[in-house]
Amino acid sequence: MSSVLSPQSSVLSPSRICLIGMGQEFRGDDAVGILLARRLKNRLGTQVQVIEACPDGASLLCYFTEFEVVLIVDAVTSGAPAGTIHILDGRTEAIPNAWFQVSTHTVSLPEAIQLATVLGQLPRRLRIWGIEGAGFDVGSELSLPVAQVMSKVEDLIAAECHTHLKIGLRTED
């Protein structure tokens, strides 16, 4: 099956959009990506392929080549106040390695994107949603600032998914 849209097609097939929630469910704020993916899976249904847990940045490469639009949500640590929402275009903006100082991934998200760039395997659209975490201790719960922004981030990501489904990608992108 070709991943190229025909000139007549203006709507992106649901099987061409993927949302990946990264993190570890039982490590405090590191669970935010997984929890958001779970909520969005219920909300979006079958319109978007949702991956609730991506254990390692290296496994992202298969999603980068399989989907035209990839949205990734993960906890980050940039030094900004907890609950800060960072949104980056993964194709044009560098993702700071410092965001993942406490990463539980063997290969970090920035490293996976750098590798995909070198290999020419980035998806046509790559959006990174980073939620600034406060605590990452094993067995801890989400911090209050992170829990308070979850609904806002969920709405923003859902709106972006619906936009991609509604207008699709033009073939000249």
What is the secondary structure topology, with strand pairs?
Blueprint (H helix, E strand, L loop, with lengths): L16 E6 L9 H13 L4 E6 L5 H7 L2 E8 L8 E5 L19 H11 L5 E8 L11 H24 L6
Parallel strand pairs: 1-2, 1-3, 3-5
Antiparallel strand pairs: 4-5
Helix pairs in contact: 1-4
Characterise this structure.
- There is one protein chain.
- This protein has 173 residues and is an alpha/beta fold.
- The chain has one domain: 3-Layer(aba) Sandwich (Rossmann fold).
- It is built from four helices and five strands; from the N terminus they run E-H-E-H-E-E-H-E-H.
- Strands 2-1-3-5-4 form a five-stranded mixed β-sheet, sandwiched between helices.
- Helix 1 links the parallel strand 1 and strand 2.
- Helix 1 packs across helix 4.
- The longest helix has 24 residues, at 144-167.
Average of pLDDT: 82
User: Roughly how many Å apart are the termini?
Assistant: 19 Å
Q: Which range best describes the helical content: under 10%, 10-25%, 25-40%, 40-55%, 55-70% or over 70%?
A: 25-40%
Biggest pleated sheet: 5 strands, mixed
CATH C-level category: Alpha Beta
Order of helices and strands: EHEHEEHEH
User: What is the CATH architecture descriptor?
Assistant: 3-Layer(aba) Sandwich
| Strands ordered across the widest β-sheet | 2-1-3-5-4
Spell out the CATH superfamily. HybD-like
Low-confidence stretches: 1-14
Radius of gyration: 16 Å
Anisotropy-based shape:
globular
Question: Descriptors for this entry?
Answer:
single chain, alpha/beta, Rossmann fold, five-stranded mixed sheet, 4 helices, about 20% strand, globular
